[in-house]
Amino acid sequence: MSCSVDETKHIKDRQCVACDNTQKHFRVGGTAGQCIGCDPCQELQIELENVDFESLSTETRQYTKNTGYKVLKIKATCVDLRRRQLQIEHGTLKVINHDVCRDPVKPWGEPLPKWHFVDRNYECKKTACEKKCSGFPFMYSNGCGLSVWVSKDTNPPELLSSLSLPITPADWRVVTEGVCKYCTFCARDSYNAGCNKGYGGNPGPEGQCLPCLQQCEPNHFLHHPDKDAGCHDPAETKRATDGSGNWMTKQNYECKRCLTWVHEHGNIYTVTACRRNTHYTHTSSDLKIKDNVVPPMPDGDKPYESGPLRKTFRSFYNDKRANCLPGFYFNSKLPNCNLLPQGEAFKLPAEYGTDVIGYDDYNPGCCSVCTSCASPLEFKDISIWKSCTGDTMQDTQNHCMEKCLINDSGFLCFFNLYDKS
Description:
By secondary structure, this protein is mostly beta strands. It is 1% helix and 32% strand. The protein has one helix and 34 strands.
């Protein structure tokens, strides 16, 4: 008889068993009905009800002929997740009840932990406060997990403290997260790494400004994920929206070791300048190894509005040249020339991708002469032939075709109207 009076159980293999499958907690239909679960924004509600014994199934009644008895039946239904509500008591607006969230595996909701909100736009998932405004790079959820926010219809949330009577409490919903608000803007040479972090802490998710690094140890440069000198000379897209002249800078510099070569978009380059180092070794046009000097950085001896000289921030992004001379290519198959496996990944500023970098000394022995088509017996296959520019890792000129071939009929000759060699 237990399955007839308990909607959290069903008949399986002729046995009355609990609906204990994952995410399936109560029965629909007769005693042999299927077990189902509540929608993500609902939870299971159990009610006890006295019912006439005669109302139960014939299967149950067959064991007795007594009538007029009542039995206690466990009824199971799905209801919306419990949440806080507004109520007026003695002329004062108050918040009653509490918010709950539900693990889909469990039938009932649990109290929403601090510094979380119920994301009712995404299956009512329990979500950390910092996720609310994560789609906005310099914002946090004001009051999430702390202040009481309410909304009416589809209007943006407002603080409960901003409401005044008379209102109709049933028209308003209490929400578990605040509106997205800008974090603390910073002056040049400062950054706010605590933006949208530290909910429940001090100074809170609005963050605070801290001074940026000013210098690194020798042979290192100040790398910023936004741009060169991104903390002292922020990108215009980082300008604060309040007209204060401050900035939305979230990250400090990192001290990075100056490199000697970089592999970028399939090509390899020699780094010519890094920080205040403007000397580099390379092969000259007469094939001799020489020490070279790059031109001074424009305004390099001038400081930004605050901070050290501009040349302190010089990285390698704009200071590199082909590893080999034109007419040569970098041959990684030669001894001590397979550099890439020993290199390390380096994420470029903004969204410019990732390079492979290294610190090996310049080795002219890694440069091999590119192929020259033997005119007049050969011509270039212009569909794939490219001039060697010195930065490639393949012989892009090794695409020559013979002008005449011998077949059964004798010589068969081809002519390339576009090849002047």
